[in-house]
Amino acid sequence: MRLLNPETDLDAFFSRVAGAPERVLFLDYDGTLAPFHPDPSLAVPYPFVPARLKALTGDRATRVVIVSGRPLGELRPLLESVSHHEAWGAHGWEHHTAEAGMRRFEPEAAALRQLTLAEAPARLLESEGARVERKLASVAMHWRGLPEAQARELGERIVRAWKEIADANVELLPFEGGMELRVRGRTKAHAVLEVLQRTSPDAACAYLGDDVTDEDAFNAIKDRGLAVLVGAELRRSAADLWIRPPQELERFLVRWADAARDGP
User: Fold this and answer.
1) Rg (CA), the chain
2) Is 0.70 topped by the overall pTM?
3) What tens digit of pLDDT does each residue of 78-112 get?
4) I want to staple 203 with a disulfide (CB 3.0 to 4.6 A). Which of 22, 25, 45, 238 is the partner?
5) Percent of the chain with pLDDT over 70
6) In this structure, is the dihedral angle defined by the CA atoms of residues 42, 34, 64 and 48, taken in order, positive or negative?
7) Domains of the chain, CATH where assigned
8) Separation CA 186–CA 190 (nearest Å)
9) CB 57 within 8 A of CB 259
10) What phi and psi, each to the nearest 5 degrees, are found at residue 73?
11) Which residues face 94 on adjacent strands?
């Protein structure tokens, strides 16, 4: 573990976890709870994740919230072994709880037309190894697993095509192993802020994520909790702490569980 914010005191944070009347742990999925896989349907959690999260959800004061860029319909089979209380998908455009079911926020019609326009040049690159995914509020092109030179070329070509479409309605966003054209208006930060609105001001909170798409969430949680970058390599980030998976990720989850067990 490495502190990225010199003002962060981990011992003080976990003491806060122990003493808090309410706790919220936000977790990204791909690259955080599960290693990346060229076939996203095979991106299963690290072996220790199911047991560690089951222990956390067994604590009545802790709420576990999954926040992913993936559509929840695609992610649901992978979450069957991952204990959690609620899940947000498609960068905050989808929300699901067992109590309320599925809720979706619909993008404006003009933005959806632009996504349809953007999908066409991306589909042309599928024959060259790209994988294209149309989501509720974005179009993503993946090149994870391809040779570096091929991936770079595909990325450059789709950026040229999508730059002509990006405007006040939609924006270009790189992520690990791909590029996305996303409707403006909602991000992972919206998921964090909505959860925090119904959470006690005295709650202990943390957000763990690996990607550039998690930076909005890191900034959103700054005033209320700990922002944790998860990844094998350090990159520029607004996070307070950097941990390497899988060992340091498990260590963090264990320390949270131990603090919660010692708490009120």
Assistant:
1) 19
2) yes
3) 999 999 999 999 999 999 998 889 999 999 999 99
4) 22
5) 99
6) positive
7) 2-10+29-39+46-105+186-262 (3.40.50.1000), 109-183 (3.90.1070)
8) 6
9) no
10) -60, -35
11) 89, 104
